[in-house]
Structure formats: C-alpha cells, structure tokens
Design brief:
One of its GO terms (molecular function) is hydrolase activity, hydrolyzing O-glycosyl compounds. By secondary structure, the chain is α+β, with helices and mostly antiparallel strands. Helices cover 25% and strands 25% of the residues. The longest helix has 18 residues, at 299-316. 46% of the residues are buried.
C-alpha cells in the first residue's frame, strides 16, 4: 500500500466528539489501495478490559483517496487508539508516533482523545436538520403597503437594475406566510432589513432600525411572531464586515479626519478618507467606496456590533444570523459573536457566507454552518452535463469529508441565491435538469434552501437580473413545478432518513452520467435513481430484498433475480424505499 497516503490527526474533522458519548474517527488511504481499516480502541488506564475493535466503513471517496469512518462510544469518555490497515497480505499499524509493521504494545505512542468535555462538543441546532429554508429579498417579494414605497417606485414585475425599487416590504411577507406554509416552508432567511439607501440593503446606516421602506421594528416583531405561530423559524442577515458611507461614525470620519473619535473604527490608509479614480483611501467591501470596512478588532466596534447581534435575538426572538462576507472578518470577532448569540439563544443557527472550504470556522467555536456554494457548483456542473457519474461522486465525497458530521447535517445547501443566476437559468431553462438538481438537493445531507420564486419558475441571469419581483399571478406561475417542489419538500419532512441518514453512492461509473445513491437510517432505506441523459435509460443494480416501493406513487417495485431494473425517461428520476422495521 502507498504509505504516504495514510493520514489521520487526533483533532478537527479527523477525530471529534459528535455528542457527549460518541467520538468519530476518520482515516484517509489511497483510493482502492486498502481492504480494511480497523480502529483498535480502549482506555489508556484500563486497556485490557476496555479494548474493542471497530471495522471502519468506507464513508466517501474522491479522485485520489478513500475515507474511512467509525463511531466509538468509549466507556470512560477517554480514548486511546491506533489503526490496523490491511491490503492483501500487508498489514500496517498507524499510531500517533509513526507507522509499524508489528503492533507496538498499548498505549504508548497511540493516538489519544483525552476526554469528552460536554462544553467542548460542537453542538448545532437540532431544528436546522429539519429546516426547509426560503430566502427572501423583501424588496422583491411582495408589496403589501404602498404607503411606504420609496420615491420613484416602479410597477411590480419590471426589469430589475442595481438601483431601482418595486416597493416590496414586510407587510407583503406577512400577507403571504400561508403561501409559504402551503409549500412546506418552515424557515425563512431574510436578506438585510435595516435602514439603507440601496434596494439590497447590504450598505447599512442604522443597524437597530428596520428600513422605513419595509415597515418598522414593531412590524418586524409581528412578522416573526406570526412565523413562530405557524412553526416557521426566522434568520436575518448580519452585515458586520462593512457599512454604508452614510453610517454616522463614518460620516464623522469624513468630516473630522484623523481627529474623529471614530477614526479607528475603519481601516483608513490615508487621510482624508476619499475615493480617487475609483479607489478609496480606506478599505472597503470589494472596491465599493460606499461600503467602508469595519475594523472589527477595535473594542468599540466589536462591542457595537455584538450589541446589535444580541439586540435582535432578544428583541424579536430571532432564530439565527446569516453572516455576510464572513471570511473577511477576523476569527476573534466571530468567536465572541458566537458566545454572545448562543448566550442569548442557545438554539440560534449561525450561517457564514464563505464560498470555499470553511473548516477553520466550523470546529465549534464560530459558525454552525456555511452557505455551501461548492455544493451548488458541482451539482449544477453535473446536471448540466459537465462530468460523468464517477467524477461527480468523487466531488461529493470531497465535500462530505470537509466537515464534521454535525456540520454536514446542517450545512446550508442552495442551488442559487441573490448572488448567482437563477436556478432555471443556470440549467439552460431545461426544467427536467432543474428537477434532477432539486431532487438531489432534497435527498442530500444538509439544510436545503430555496431562493424565492424558483418554485414557480422565475428565471434571471446574474445580479441584478436574478433579483426579479416574485410572480404572484397564478396564471403566470409554473404550477406543475410548484407541485413538484411541494411534493419533494413533503417527502423530506416526512422522512428523517432523508435529513440525517447515511449517504452513499451505489453506482457512479466513468463515462456514464447516470447515478444511483442511497440514504438510510435504522428505520427506512431510500435509493435514488437518476438518468442524467436526454435518452430513455434502464438502470440496474443488485438488490437483495424484494420489498421496495416508489416513494412518490406508493407502487411496488419488484426485483428480478436479485437485480433491480428501473426504467427512466430522459432526465428522469425515481425515489424508492423499503422499511427496515416492521
């Protein structure tokens, strides 16, 4: 076997407490190079009577490596362990202090998980595992109160630009909560609601006031109370990386320069603070001079923003925060942010906007989750014909092995957002491809999110075109697509196995764009069959039992001589299940 490929460290995603009684271990080996990996476990002070071997399961694979996983329940919350790795007649023992051909006597040099301290266990909100999120840009969702429309508001449904308004507001959201309930939504993610000169509100002037074009603080409280009464959680957008140039402390810096008491609230590289030839003399979000960047290491700035985070949790009983441009804010700030938010509401859900590998924020001291753009990119590439089944399975394996299981169970999965083209547009306006991607979204690990209007067929290119007004005329909605979303949401909500069960690919071959995968827990076993081609296909896979049913129609689906043969239309899918308990 290739010894250089063997990898394990006793921390982060490789060895972690999943709950107060369980430790998860992971090992990496070269792809298709190893037959078995066995975790040799015991207590360092009582090895002989606590010794227990666990044959690890191959949990995922990518282009180069296999990843093996096991859950261990140590008797005394401590764990010493080593790995016995076998390939044919070759056996290697992997310990903390090296690799051996013969097993060293325990427990010197073994890996250690010193103790499961419950306070250190990375806890995520259980409700997020069951959540179906719906992302709303209030300015574009519904105009429920024309009296608060901005000057120059355009007729609903017009072409969006970077600076036009259509009058959407919180009353519009309140008016349509029952529509969301009918769809099956049980969580809302609002883009920013606070006072701001723009239509998107990511340049905030007053962090403790709802923008008057949306309503007021009291109306927001009514919206949240109404949501809670209907079983809908609410998550707001925290823009703590930057503010508006109209933010009063920044205006003070513009006026008084170095003498301003707020001079250190921002990253001013040269006074006076100004924009020259499109480049600001202060740090900004991107190169937008109207969005100066906060110095979150400044104690006054930190306290101001943490007060804002706590204020809304307590004021409206907020269920979570989505953190804008989270990767550009210092880790010290986010650690304090988590403590403040979790003290105010231990069940709050914290989602960071990070577009790449985010493990540094997901080890229990900062975020619960991140917006999983890598998931969206790979899913859409696959269903747009950009890779075969094996490559897709490898990419998904990489994504699953990035984070601990508790994060995988609540990672924020979406297929588009206010920052990307619309889903239907991203799949070339092919509704069949769109449905395959949505089926995968609702049958994969993580917390799914729908961008408002996708369920009725809204299209749109990149910003600002993706930020169209919601279509409320039933005659202009794709009601068949709506019913499809409603059906898939209902299936996921009804079956815990689709939310927390094990995920594995059963069939993903080179040169073949079709896939079969499974989700299962101790009660139900699902298999999902997908024809990712424009021609009818028959997919086959060995099945030992003959008790499968179609999860959407309820029809029996028989096997033939131990093999399941499933006929699929072009870009068709089928979701099968069998009960594991009588």
């Amino acid at each position: 076997m290739l010894l250089e490929a063997l990898y394990h460290v006793p921390r982060d995603k490789w060895a972690y407490a999943y709950d107060p009684k369980t430790i998860h271990l992971r090992v990496r080996t070269k792809r298709n190079d190893v037959d078995t990996v066995v975790a040799m476990t015991g207590d360092k002070y009582d090895w002989d009577s606590t010794y227990f071997e666990i044959t690890m399961e191959k949990a995922a694979t990518d282009e180069m490596f296999d990843y093996w996983e096991a859950a261990v329940l140590p008797k005394y919350k401590r764990l010493s362990y080593a790995f016995r790795i076998t390939s044919g007649k070759e056996t290697i023992y992997m310990l903390d202090n090296g690799l051996y051909r013969n097993c060293p006597a325990p427990t010197g040099g073994y890996y250690e998980f010193s103790y499961i301290h419950e306070i250190d266990v990375f806890k995520v909100p259980d409700w997020a595992k069951d959540a179906i999120f719906y992302q709303i840009m209030p300015e574009r969702f519904a105009n429920g109160d024309p009296s608060n429309d901005p000057k120059g508001t355009q007729p609903w449904g017009g072409q969006p630009t970077t600076d036009n308004f259509f009058g959407g507001d919180l009353q519009g959201v309140l008016d349509h909560l029952d529509d969301l309930l009918d769809l099956g939504i049980n969580a809302i993610y609002f883009t920013p609601l606070f006072t701001s000169p723009s239509n998107h509100k990511y340049d905030i002037v007053d962090y403790k006031q709802v923008d008057p074009h949306f309503g007021d603080n009291e109306l927001l409280k009514q919206v949240v109370e109404a949501c809670h009464s209907k079983g809908i959680r609410v998550m707001l957008d925290a823009v703590f990386n930057h503010c508006s140039e109209l933010f009063p402390p920044f205006q003070d810096v513009l006026k008084h320069g170095e003498k301003s008491k707020y001079a250190d609230w921002f990253h001013i590289n040269q006074f006076p603070a100004r924009v020259e030839n499109g480049i600001a003399t202060y740090d900004t979000f991107g190169f937008f001079g109207n969005m100066p960047k906060f110095n979150t290491a400044n104690p006054e700035v930190k306290q101001y923003l943490l007060d804002v985070a706590e204020y809304w949790i307590k004021e409206i009983k907020l269920d979570g925060w989505r953190l804008d441009v989270a990767n550009e804010v210092d880790h010290h700030f986010w650690r304090d942010f988590r403590m403040v938010v979790k003290n105010a509401n231990p069940d709050a859900y914290i989602v960071g906007e990070v577009w790449s590998d985010s493990l540094a924020w997901l080890v229990g001291d900062q975020f619960d989750s991140v917006m999983n753009y890598p998931f969206a990119d790979k899913v859409l590439e696959f269903f747009n014909g950009g890779m075969d089944g094996l490559t897709f399975a490898n990419k998904m394996g990489t994504i699953l092995m990035r984070y601990p299981q508790q994060t995988n169970e609540v990672v924020f999965n979406m297929l588009c957002s206010h920052d990307t083209p619309r889903l239907l547009t991203r799949v070339g306006n092919d509704k069949r491809r769109m449905k395959l991607a949505v089926v995968f979204l609702f049958t994969f690990m993580g917390t799914p999110c729908i961008f408002y209007g996708d369920e009725v067929g809204l299209t749109g290119g990149g910003d600002p075109d993706c930020r169209k007004c919601m279509e409320w005329d039933p005659k202009k909605q794709d009601r068949e697509l709506y019913d499809f979303y409603k059906l898939l949401i209902g299936l996921r909500k009804k079956n815990k196995a689709l939310r927390e069960g094990r995920f594995r690919f059963l069939k993903a071959e080179p040169g073949n764009p079709n896939i079969i995968y499974e989700r299962m827990d101790s009660r139900v076993h699902f298999t999902i069959w997908m024809n990712n081609t424009d021609k009818p296909q028959v997919l086959s896979h060995p099945m030992v039992t003959n008790d499968w049913k179609d999860a959407l129609s309820g029809d029996n689906v028989p096997t033939q001589n131990g093999t399941m043969n499933v006929s699929l239309d072009p870009y068709g899918y089928r979701i099968l299940y069998r009960n594991l308990t009588k």
